[in-house]
Design goal:
The protein is α/β, with parallel strands linked by helices and 188 residues long. Helix content is 37%, strand content 25%. The chain has helices at 5-11, 14-28, 46-54, 65-75, 111-124, 140-145, 159-165, and strands at 37-40, 58-62, 80-83, 96-102, 125-136, 169-176, 179-185. The chain has a seven-stranded mixed beta sheet, with helices on both faces. Strand 4 (96-102), helix 5 and strand 5 (125-136) form a beta-alpha-beta unit. Helix 2 (14-28) packs across helix 3 (46-54). The N and C termini lie far apart (34 Å).
């Protein structure tokens, strides 16, 4: 999905990567992600940089060809980097122990496409697997950062029902300081 120049510079910066590296390990420690994890929409790879060192096996699915090439150059020797859409994943049913996504769902232009991503995450998860992630909520600064970008912010109140419709159970959604966190489990 298109990003304006300011947004691209921020998300590709070392400052952003360092901020992610500071908070992501503690967040990940709250979940048992298992042995084979899929990251949807890593973009410039700030989260991927942390995940490749924290997980036994990582696959990253990125829709943007240029970002996919960048990720392959940086992490292709330590992770499987695949170009494709989270709404039409090229993976077999029940392959992954966990699916994660970080600050990417607001770049998906419609609720329907987001729902397809939820359904695909459910499909590729093993029974008992976890789907979890973080995304931003609307604020003045967030809106400014997205001028000219796709921005479809998740509705925190509607998200539990949307994830349940995809088949998930044990859905948890929390908003704190304009940050939405969610987790859900594919039933065993």
């Amino acid at each position: 999905m298109p990003m304006n120049l300011m947004h691209r510079k921020l998300c590709s910066s070392e400052k952003w990567a360092a901020a992610v590296a500071e908070v992501l390990p503690d967040w990940l420690a709250r979940f048992d992600l298992g042995d084979d994890v899929l990251e949807i929409g890593p973009g410039f790879g700030a989260t991927t940089r942390v995940l490749v060192d924290a997980l036994p096996q990582l696959t990253a699915l990125e829709i943007d060809p240029a970002s996919t090439r960048l990720l392959q150059e940086k992490y292709g020797d330590r992770a499987d980097i695949v170009e494709g859409s989270g709404a039409e994943m090229p993976f077999e049913d029940g392959r992954f122990s966990a699916v994660v996504c970080f600050t990417m769902l607001h770049h998906v232009p419609t609720d329907e496409l987001q729902d397809r991503i939820f359904a695909e995450a459910f499909r590729v998860l093993r029974p008992g697997g976890t789907y979890c992630g973080v995304d931003s909520q609307l604020s003045f600064g967030f809106r400014l950062l997205h001028i000219g970008d796709t921005m479809n912010v998740l509705d925190a109140e509607a998200l539990p029902g949307r994830l349940a419709t995809a088949g998930f159970e044990q859905v948890r959604v929390r908003v704190e300081r304009k940050r939405l966190e969610f987790s859900a489990v594919r039933p065993s």
